[in-house]
Amino acid sequence: MTAGIYVHVPFCFSKCRYCGFVSFPYDKERPLLYREAVLREMTDAAGKSGGVCFGSVYFGGGTPTCLDREDLVFLLRRVGDLFCVLPGAETTVEANPETVDGAYLHSLLQAGVNRISLGAQTFDPSLLDLLGRQAGPAVVRRAVRAARQAGFTNLSMDLIFGLPGQTPFVHRQTLEQALDLEPEHISAYGLELIAGTPLARAVAEGSLAPCGEEEALAMYEETIAVLTRAGYRHYEISNFARPGYECRHNLIYWENGEYLGFGPAAASHWRGGRRQNADSMEAYLRGEGIAEEGADRSREMTDTILMGLRLLEGLDLAAFADRFGVSLESSYGQTLAWVRRQGLAEVKGERLRLTARGLPLANEVFRAFV
Ligand code: SF4
Question: Domains in the chain and their CATH numbers?
Answer without folding.
Answer: 3-253 (3.20.20.70), 314-370 (no CATH)
